[in-house]
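Follow-up to my earlier ticket, as requested here are the two runs.
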Amino acid sequence: MRTILFSLLLTLPAFGQFPYSATTGEWLNTNSLGGVNIGSYAGNATPSIDAIRIGFFAGAGPNASLTSSIAIGRHAFYNAHADQSFGFGHAAGQYAGLGGDASSSIIGGYLAGRNANQLSPHYGFLSVVFGYEAVTTTKSFQASAIVGARGGSTAVSAVAASMLGYGTGQIATNADFSTLVGYSAGGNAAQLTNCIYLGSYAGYNYSRVNTLIIESNPAFTGTSSLIYGETDTRLIQFGATKMGFFGTPATAKPTITGSRASGAVLQDLLLKLSNLGLINDSTTP
């Protein structure tokens, strides 16, 4: 990306032919220690080494640190501590890393990764964030991959988390070490530490730790989910009303009938187990 931008700039006339204000840094400001600033106040008050900042106040601010970074968009990476990072979109990464670190990150989307409340310290290093208002008020999302509009948008902490889908882990106080995949998976749950929720609305309103939930029907949550597990107690539970094994069509839970004395119950048991696909009945009368 940087190579492409520099190539485009080389095709322009000499820098001195452009309108330039040392105060505002308007249009093209090259006073940035090897970097390039394009746009009103881009990079203003923040000379960062080898940075590219494009847009109104992009990468500007007295406390910004953007060595070898790219900021594209109005207020992108404004006053951010995000060295070796790439931010694009309106206010993407604004105030990110304030008092902390948001370096080596990729942040894209309207208000994505923005430290909306200017919390300090704020951490987002080694992260990938894409989506409208993704992790906009989250204090810590380092080493995370969050993709989807409003993913973790008002979560407090989402360290080493993986979120994919709209509104995943949206209000969690703690979503550290969790994997949330699907529309609003864990979207209204306050506690999601070390959880795996897969499917649309999976565990939507279910606050847990160390829990597995696979479900795509919002009418079922928690222990009524299609698959529910707890890693700390080594528990797994299936909420299916029909099951089949080894390629056998699913059937409902069987009821075994017949007399034990006559042996009819054994015959019925073998039939029902065979219908489930759990055995091949090769017995003889």
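Run two:
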Amino acid sequence: MTVLKNGILLVSVMMLSACQSFSDSMWMHPPQPKPVVTVEVEPTSLPISNLYNNPALDAEIALAVKDYRILALSGENTLPPGVPQRIKLANLSKYCGLRTLPSLGVVVDDRIDTKQRELFFNYAQQYNQFVLAACEKDFGRALR
């Protein structure tokens, strides 16, 4: 009988100490909502007039991370702008990689389409000359 009383007393003390350790737990106190923090963010979408205007800087950034992908215009299966005829498209794709400039999608005004394609072509031509020089430096004759 004494063993039983000692056992009950021991269990009661353990439960009491366990309950005291849970007094600060979440089930005793519901979580408080966190304050909402508002952050001013610069807009990330730029009008097209601010994009594709610095091919040298963009190529420098790409080359810093060894991104040799050559820019191509969507819907064309010819050599990308600025790539000489001595380079084979299959080898260029294999060693340097290709990245397609965004498609113009549905065209409402042909004048805008022509101007936009000209902008993309000129940008890609200049960008590709910088990137191709670096790709040729690393892969050389394999591109021919």
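The only thing I checked on run two: The chain has two domains: 1-31, 48-143. Let me know what else you need.
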